[in-house]
Structures are given as structure tokens and as C-alpha cells.
Task: inverse folding
């Protein structure tokens, strides 16, 4: 599909101080595993009816009622679901730079399964040591300080998984990843998901969901944005989305530009338009 045309037509309108890798990926996985931290309960029918009475967008409430029926029963795939998609999509023997590689789990698997020429970047010293133990080459670099050590177009793919929203300068890092890589792969939580909207609009509280298991005072997420926001940036920055996947109701599915309401997390493959 023509992502840029969809973005420009408005079809997607519904649609930390510390960063990177182990700090954020491990924190997400451990928080989701803690009792009582898997998110607040879903909205009750009574809450939604009250919301409907106070909200002029009745179609949005109807959609939420429909989604509520399947959300709580859906399997919880939050965590590292993106890794398998990346493994399935990358060509054998390509070169990969993994920004915020954490303990090197994804990059080590890419090296083993696909024979990629891999390089990791990680801020946390303990995670750097774990990456080295896995045999993953890794540099101890703060992403917010840039990627000046890497030449233009020096990698086939640059990966930024579940990290963008934790950075102090996200746009600078996006620009750098598309300078260093011929293609970018990025994943992020979608703050336009219907559960996030409901908790803010109806409950007046910061949302806690399966994919966002943090309280307001311990979240690593400092730049909050939606899938629609990111598609807007792609359009403005002349960046093409060549492939997309979303996590919706516990299932990974191809992404469309109207999924801003239903997708909890998104995974996009990017290219800079020449």
C-alpha cells in the first residue's frame, strides 16, 4: 500500500534520562511479570456507557465496546515479539547495527541464524558485558550523543527496538539511524491505543496496560507519541514506511494506516526518500 498517500490523506488520524537496550527492554519484561503490574483492569460496560453519555463520538465508544470483548482474553505477547518478525524479514548475510542492543539477545540470534555482520550499541555497562559474553561486538555509546563514529550508509539495517520513546533527543537519533543505515527498523508502544485513551479520558489517570506496565513515577518513557504521530513525522521527514506490523489483541498482524486505535505496539521498516 502507499503509506505516504495514506498518511497525507489523514486516514491514520484515528489511527529517561537513561536510555537504551537492557535498561528499557529488561525493565519492560520484568515490570510486566510482576504481580499487579500487568496493567489496570479493562473498562467495564458501565464505565463505557457513562463515557458514551459524556462523549460526542459515539462511534468511538462503540468500537471500544467491541474491542473490550476480546482484549482481556487475548494472549499477552508484549515483550520481544518484534524479534521473530525481524528474523523473518532480514536477508541472510546483511549488515546490522542494533541501537540499544541490551544483552545482545536479538543480535546474537541474527548472527547465528542469518549470518549477519552485526554491531551493537549499548549504554548500560552490565548489558555490554553480557553482549560480549554472547559473542556480540558492542560499543558502549550513549545514543543521545549521536552516532558520529559511524560513516554514512555503513549498514544495510539499523534497528531501534522499544527505545525511541525513552530518548532525550528522539528526532536526532532517527535522523542519525537513517544516515548510518540504508534502512531503519523501529518499534514503539502506541499511545493512541484505545486502552490508553480510555484511562486518560474516563479515569483521568496515566494508563497502565500490558505493554505499558509502569506507573507515572517509574516509567522510562519520556516522549509519548502515537502511531499517527509517527506517520506524520515520516511524511514531513520524507521517510517511506516500506513494511509494518502491529500487535493487536495478542496477535501480530500486518499494519495498516488506520490501526492507531487498535495497535498496542508497532514495528516499522523505514527508508529515506531520495
Result:
Amino acid at each position: 500500500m502507499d503509506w505516504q498517500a495514506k498518511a497525507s490523506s489523514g486516514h491514520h488520524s484515528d489511527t529517561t534520562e537513561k536510555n537504551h537496550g537492557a535498561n528499557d527492554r529488561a525493565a519492560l519484561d520484568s515490570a510486566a511479570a510482576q504481580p499487579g503490574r500487568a496493567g489496570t483492569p479493562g473498562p467495564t460496560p458501565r464505565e463505557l456507557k457513562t463515557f458514551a453519555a459524556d462523549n460526542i463520538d459515539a462511534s468511538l465508544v462503540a468500537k471500544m465496546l467491541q474491542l473490550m470483548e476480546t482484549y482481556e482474553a487475548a494472549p499477552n505477547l508484549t515483550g520481544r515479539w518484534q524479534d521473530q518478525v525481524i528474523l523473518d524479514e532480514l536477508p541472510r548475510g546483511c549488515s546490522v547495527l542494533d541501537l540499544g542492543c541490551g544483552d545482545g539477545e536479538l543480535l546474537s540470534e541474527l548472527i547465528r541464524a542469518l549470518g549477519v555482520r552485526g554491531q551493537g550499541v549499548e549504554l548500560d555497562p552490565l548489558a555490554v558485558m553480557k553482549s560480549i559474553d554472547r559473542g556480540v561486538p558492542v560499543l558502549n555509546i550513549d545514543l543521545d550523543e549521536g552516532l558520529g563514529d559511524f560513516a554514512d550508509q555503513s549498514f544495510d539495517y539499523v534497528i531501534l527496538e522499544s527505545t525511541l520513546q525513552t530518548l532525550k533527543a528522539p528526532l536526532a537519533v532517527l535522523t542519525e539511524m537513517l544516515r548510518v543505515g540504508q534502512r531503519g527498523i523501529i518499534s514503539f508502544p502506541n499511545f493512541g491505543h484505545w486502552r490508553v485513551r480510555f484511562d486518560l479520558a474516563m479515569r483521568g489517570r496515566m494508563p497502565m496496560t500490558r505493554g505499558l506496565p509502569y506507573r507515572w513515577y517509574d516509567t522510562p518513557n519520556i516522549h509519548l507519541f502515537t502511531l499517527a504521530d509517527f506517520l506524520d513525522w515520516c511524511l514531513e521527514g520524507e521517510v517511506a514506511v516500506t513494511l509494518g506490523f502491529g500487535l493487536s489483541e495478542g496477535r501480530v498482524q500486518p499494519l495498516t494506516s488506520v490501526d492507531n486505535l487498535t495497535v498496542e505496539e508497532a514495528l516499522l521498516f523505514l527508508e529515506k526518500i531520495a
The chain has ten helices and eight strands. The domain at 1-36+80-191+222-274 is CATH 3.40.50.150 (Rossmann fold). The longest strand covers residues 239-248. The radius of gyration is 19 Å.
